[in-house]
Amino acid sequence: MGLKILFVAIWFLSTASCERQVLSYTTGDIKIKIETGEHWLHDFPLFLGLSKKNPPQFAVWLEDTSGNYLTTVFVTYKIATEGWILNKGNRRKEALPHWCHKRGVVYKDGLLLPTKENPLPDGITGATPKVDKEIQIRIKDFTEPVVIKAEFNHSTDFNDFFPENAAEGDDNYSGGKEGSGQPAVVYAATIYPNQQNTFLKLIGHSSVDGSDGIIYSDLEKLTTAKSIVKQVSVEIIE
Amino acid sequence: MKHITSVIIFLFLGVATSNAQNSSKVSFEISFNKMCLGYQFNFDKAPIWSKAYIGLGNQDINKEFNDVLSGIKIGTPFFSFTNSKVYGDFNTGIYIPNNKYYNATTLFIGIDIGYEMFFGTQKRHSLFTEIGYLYGQREYIQALDNETLFISTKDVFKLYPINFSLGYGFGF
User: How many domains does chain A have?
Assistant: First the structure.
């Protein structure tokens, strides 16, 4: 009897289809698609020479055409909730400094990074995807152009120009051994209500140590950081 | 949810009503992403055992040991020795992530190979280790709707595919 019930349970389980989820777009909706690049996954060192393939931290937000921050549309969990695990107390202000400074919310410790006590809202905070990511936006009064920006960064993404052993105070100091390495890269594009397809352009990198919100257009010293993302496209649904 | 509840009831009913020999066993197993309590019966008509288990996992977004998992394993010994055995099992169940960001109750299936070593005068105690493959993933949608904007994203919750655990069992 028991054996029969067990087999029924297994059959029941195996026939339980995984529900496919689909984002349902309507006319005027904006589809942002982030396509992963060659270096989307980066080896993050653990212990005994072992490492883990980590996707980057990133944020996507809107600004008006004068550069004023409007709203965040997606941000990865670790930076949105101070959900770092192996940070040894480092709040990682070098992770996404341009987004932090644009947002301009100062927390109790004087930093611009969300905290465990005051994280970003649930609906815009998500797990860091290991594959392409799609974000649907519906701006309820979309009559004026807006700027979409996206900032991406890996931890410990060191190269010859941004080494692990850079000393605090040096131009290429990125947070030390557990820090960023190459700085965050920023993509942007202006979208217009009547323009169907747009691609975000790489416009520069953020502050190496996270001390300011400036975008630096010099990209020569970046190597793998330039291929974290293959492409960020925006489509307005007709 | 009804479907999931039905599956859980089926799983436990299956194990609880099986015709068992005297050698039932309770066990505790732990790995880097889960800890489970199990209750095992041996079927008397075939060299097969079944184990129902329930436990906590940390595989969702917040990495806290507050997710719930439950399932059954059906196994058979491959090689038996005086004080040990090598066995294989089929593993299936439900993983329920616990966080405020998404609901993604996920069904999973897997297979394991295990080695169990018995000790004590009546060989009631055992230590075991298992390694196996697990498959389970579930798509989910998150959304935010306010006065000016509606935002929605799709993502996938995927269980870690490698199962490696250590455990202790007590037979009675």
Answer: 1
Determine the structural domain holding residue A53 and report its residue range: 2-224
- Strand partners of residue A159: none
Q: How far apart are alpha carbons B153 and A196 in whole angstroms?
A: 20
Question: What is the number of H-type helices and E-type strands within chain B?
Answer: 1, 10
- Tokens found for residue A61: 């937000």
What is the C-alpha to C-alpha distance for residues A130 and A54, in angstroms, rounded to an integer? 8
CA distance B47 to chain A (A): 12
Q: Do B150 and A138 touch (CB under 8 A)?
A: yes
**Phi, psi for B147 (deg, rounded to 5):** -65, -30
Cβ <8 Å between A21 and B62: no
Q: The pTM is what?
A: 0.85
Phi, psi of B52, rounded to the nearest 5 degrees = -100, 140
Q: Which residues of A touch B5 (CB under 8 A)?
A: none
Read off the tokens for B152.
């929605």
Q: Residue-wise over A62-96: b if at least 16 C-beta within 10 A, else e?
A: bbeeeeebebbbbbbbbbbbbbbeebeebbbbbbb
Strands B125-135 and B162-171: antiparallel
**Measured between CB atoms, which of B3, B139, B148 is closest to A140?**
B148
Q: Considering chain A, what is the average pLDDT of its residues? A: 90
Measure in Å the smallest separation between the Cα of A101 and chain B Cα atoms: 22
Q: Name the burial class of residue A186, with classes exposed (0-12), middle (13-18) and buried (19+) by CB atoms within 10 angstroms of its CB.
A: buried
Domain membership of residue A146 (yes or no) is yes
Residue A129 included in any domain: yes
Does the residue A231 lie in any domain? no
A83-108 pLDDT, tens digit per residue, is 887 777 788 999 999 999 999 999 99
Please state, in angstroms and rounded to a whole number, the distance separating the CA atoms of residues B106 and A192. Answer: 40
Beta strands at B84-96 and B106-119: parallel, antiparallel or unpaired: antiparallel
State the best of A4, A5, A134 to mutate against chain B, taking most chain B CBs within 10 Å.
A5
Is A75 inside a domain boundary?
Answer: yes
Could you say which residues of chain B have pLDDT below 70? 1-22
